[in-house]
Write a structure and sequence with these properties.
about 15% helix; about 35% strand
Amino acid sequence: MLHCRVLCCVQADAGLGVAAIHCEGKNVKLIIATIKPFKLEEVREALTTVGVRGMMVSEIKGFGSQSGHTEIYRGAEYAVNFVPKVKLEIVVPDSMADQVVSTITTTAKTDKIGDGKVFVLDVQSAVRVRTGETNDDAL
């Protein structure tokens, strides 16, 4: 089950780290992960086990170290420049962020190129549309 959230603003430091933003006494993190599509259900189950109550999932295409590949279709070889991936967006309390990142990296890992990336950003504000609850309460 996916939960809908409105993220009012995400702010990251342009330097080496992420800026620490204090939200009415409660810090909230946005975790963005790209993983291989066939790992989605396994990652979702693992995240549910550690207490994640919702996430947003998008089908995306991209490339990184693997820079695409070539495939043969009906005898013809063609280049695949963008590889299909799944993007997860998960908003969690600061206290859960390390555990969520660890769960994603452990579960999505195949030891092959293209396993994905995980980014953690501070969220300035989160609001649940239905109730108006904010920040940690909105999760």
